[in-house]
Amino acid sequence: MKIALLGYGKMGQIIEQFAQNRNHEIVLKIDEHSLDQLTVENLRNADVAIDFSTPHSVMQNIEICFEANVPLVVGTTGWYGQLQNVKDKCIASNNTLLYGSNFSIGVNIFFYVNRMLAKVMNPYPQYDAQVEEIHHTQKLDSPSGTAITIAEGILESLDRKDEWVNNLVDMGEQVANQPNQLLIESLRIEDVPGTHTVIYSSEVDEIEFKHTAHSRAGFALGAVIAAEWLKGRKGFYSVENIFEFNN
Ligand SMILES: NC(=O)C1=CN([C@@H]2O[C@H](COP(=O)(O)OP(=O)(O)OC[C@H]3O[C@@H](n4cnc5c(N)ncnc54)[C@H](OP(=O)(O)O)[C@@H]3O)[C@@H](O)[C@H]2O)C=CC1
Ligand SMILES: O=C(O)C1=N[C@H](C(=O)O)C[C@H](O)C1
């Protein structure tokens, strides 16, 4: 496939490697210094675009990909408040978009097991639930998109929680969460690719369920596989649609 990379930072550069290893051609690379190249005409040279840009730029990138009718894989996080609006626009304009807070196989297995675990824990209110995420210090958004997906998976089944709140540690303010709130604690530590933990804690014990990314390789490979999966499809998808265990 011919691939347009929207965002050529930490993720864009490793995606390029995985795409070329899988015999795909990179036909466009966009970062802040090449925004003049981000045109409908140039996008139409691609079979698919892959966006790993920024929370501030992703919406305009989605818009121009819809205008160009180019299928789009969105890995960028920090825009999920606009998700329904984007889904409506995608379907209304007969476009194709697949988004995912995390494209690694391991995290998608984690997402599935997390939902099952929340169902198991629902009858045991003596266990309080919490999510913790750790990322590198260059991360712009908090909480991570992955942590939001995890939290939403818990809120689906844990009746004692009905919303999540975020506490970005070391930013001074400490969010005191109410019993009905699921706390997502975010830590920023240099060079951490992404670590996510679900903790069920009681007076007598603690259950921890953890995923640790060793590098960005799993995210990048998953994004390229998602672009391959999207070929020939029309409509609005999430990364979870790719995995048989979710269907
Ligand atoms: N879904 C998943 O599996 C994963 C998602 N992510 C998400 O992907 C995003 C990017 O992460 P990461 O690569 O580490 O971030 P980086 O900051 O390393 O890269 C972001 C890139 O976007 C570029 N950029 C800035 N503005 C625009 C624009 N208007 N159009 C296109 N590109 C632009 C930046 O350009 P410049 O360098 O010139 O500023 C930079 O090249 C984040 O939201 C992160 O949360 C990350 C890993 C996995
Ligand atoms: O910014 C990152 O690096 C990552 N962001 C994604 C997220 O916000 O969940 C995915 C991964 O954890 C790495």
Q: What is the gist of this entry?
A:
This protein has helices at 10-21, 40-43, 58-68, 83-92, 105-121, 145-155, 217-230, and strands spanning 2-6, 25-30, 48-51, 72-74, 96-99, 128-135, 163-168, 181-188, 195-201, 206-212, 235-238. It has 247 residues and is of the alpha/beta class.
Explain this structure.
With 247 residues, the chain is α/β, with parallel strands linked by helices. It folds into two domains: 2-103 and 217-241, NAD(P)-binding Rossmann-like Domain (Rossmann fold, 3-Layer(aba) Sandwich); 105-212, Dihydrodipicolinate Reductase, domain 2, CATH 3.30.360.10. 32% of the residues lie in helices and 25% in strands. The chain contains seven helices and eleven strands. It has a six-stranded parallel beta sheet with strand order 2-1-3-4-5-11, sandwiched between helices. The chain has a five-stranded mixed beta sheet with strand order 7-8-6-9-10, covered by helices on one side. The radius of gyration is 19 Å and the shape is elongated. The two termini are 26 Å apart. The mean pLDDT is 96. The structure holds NADPH dihydro-nicotinamide-adenine-dinucleotide phosphate (NDP) and the ligand O=C(O)C1=N[C@H](C(=O)O)C[C@H](O)C1. Residues 6-12, 30-33, 35, 52-55, 57, 61, 75-78, 100-103, 145, 219 line the site of NADPH dihydro-nicotinamide-adenine-dinucleotide phosphate (NDP).
Notable characteristics:
single chain; 247 residues; alpha/beta; Rossmann fold; Dihydrodipicolinate Reductase, domain 2; 2 domains; six-stranded parallel beta sheet; five-stranded mixed beta sheet; 25% strand; elongated; binds NADPH dihydro-nicotinamide-adenine-dinucleotide phosphate; binds the ligand O=C(O)C1=N[C@H](C(=O)O)C[C@H](O)C1
